[in-house]
Protein: NADP-dependent oxidoreductase
Organism: Streptomyces cremeus
Amino acid sequence: MKAITYSSYGSPDVLEYVERPEPKLGPDSVLVKVKAASVNPVDWKILGGYLDPALDAVFPVVPGWDVAGVVEKAGAAVTEYAPGDEVVGYVREDLVGRGTFAEYVAAPVRTLARKPANVGFEEAAGLPLAGLTAYQALVKSLKVRAGETVLVHAAAGGVGSLAVQIARALGAEVIGTASERNHDYLRSLGAKPVTYGDGLEGRVREIAPDGVDAVLDLVGGDALQVSPSLLAPGGRLASVADGAVTGLGGSYVFVRPDTVDLTELGALVERGELKVEVASVYPLEKAADAFRESMGGHTRGKIAIRVA
């Protein structure tokens, strides 16, 4: 099969488009013929070696955790899926090696859910990691309820745009930080946009004079540090970007594969309450260019990789 691999940590320049053996299929996995994958910042952070203290790498590494595709074979113990089923997945294991930037991936069933029927594979591939991150932060950590006001930092990005929509589906009012050029986009998602940077507290207080009920931080740094001052009494804070949140009385969220959560996200997509914005699409052999775009840090929505 064709795949993207790297044999040492480095920049996108070390990525290679090569022939690799089809992955072996364990009893609790299915072989997925990959139609599309997507790029997440964690992909190039792993490539750069930043997660080496936490995750063993088996070189050559096939990068990628997001997938949308069709089941080709089912493992001996699998009853959930059969050949021909369309699936999406956040195919993260406890080491990195056999990722989704390939024509086939052996995906544990615990990482998969059925693909939403009303969207294409490229849009579906942008849902798992970003959608689960937003969903688990809002629902399981912040426990957002109808009628509350939620502030989302970096609301126009891949995770942020999904967080805005999920919070709205939960019945919350949403304030989102973004650059001026993305304010109309946030309004189209149902959020009230504010510009990030100096004076943020005053701009948020103009909309929510008594503070917000919950803050979801997706960038860390200064945005996180100002967040406690934006909370109403009893307000909650969570970050997926900066572990310093725990010192501010908040929760650090690290996304995990979850079939139930991913199925709920798919249901939101099918009901028209959640849409994945696809910013750009690259063929598999141009994955290095997709990484470079992601590393630029200004993409609105998701970057997809077309595999088949």
